[in-house]
Design brief:
This protein is an alpha+beta fold. The chain is built from 4 helices and 8 strands; from the N terminus they run αβααββββββαβ. α1 (5-38) packs parallel to α3 and α2 runs antiparallel to α3. The N and C termini lie far apart (49 Å).
Length: 185
């Protein structure tokens, strides 16, 4: 293994600049989402739901980080880029982790707030407006799709067993929504 301290310091400088841009953009997006969330009144939040695909993405980024860090440490004449790339992957993992911690779907007392991590706008669906929820089991999660009058698709999220049960009990207590359990196939 060969490690060039001077090249690594240059790479740290580039990674620092990249990190400031990436995390600054993420913070700005979260501030916009928080102001949009403040305008939505769905009652008290009693459960947060983190998208499980986020953890799959984080695992993939960590795996790539390990590969490129190993490659960077085994290059006999490393370049700044060979050190910057694994550092940038690490920054992206931190960025996704921060975004996931802020962008959680919320099961509230009066409805559901769906907050996608990367694409789309924050959606609020009141329990009283829901006419149908379709629940499809996946490997270890449940995909829940929500429909409102006039049979429009309102959004979807992934829930675990406990979260699914809390959603169903909230729907039973506050609306006349039909809950359909679909097979995965």
């Amino acid at each position: 293994m060969y490690f060039d301290k001077i090249i690594f310091l240059y790479a740290l400088y580039v990674a620092f600049a990249y990190g400031m841009l990436a995390l600054g953009a993420t913070y700005f997006r979260n501030a916009l989402d928080a102001s949009q969330r403040a305008e939505i009144s769905m009652g008290e939040t009693f459960l947060f739901v983190v998208n499980p695909l986020t953890y799959l993405l984080l695992g993939a980024i960590f795996f790539l980080f390990c590969i490129f860090a190993f490659i960077a440490l085994n290059i006999s004449t490393p370049t700044v880029l060979s050190y910057v790339f694994p550092l940038a992957l690490f920054i992206n993992a931190v960025q996704v982790l921060y975004r996931a911690s802020e962008q959680r779907a919320e099961l509230c007392t009066k409805g559901l707030i769906i907050r996608p991590i990367f694409l789309g706008e924050t959606t609020s669906v009141a329990y009283e407006n829901m006419i149908r929820v379709e629940i499809t089991p996946t490997i270890s999660w449940f995909k829940c799709q929500f429909y409102v009058l006039p049979f429009d698709f309102a959004g979807q999220c992934l829930l675990n067993e406990e979260q699914k049960n809390k959603l169903i009990s909230a729907l039973n207590g506050t609306s006349l929504c039909e809950v359909r359990f679909l097979s995965n196939g």
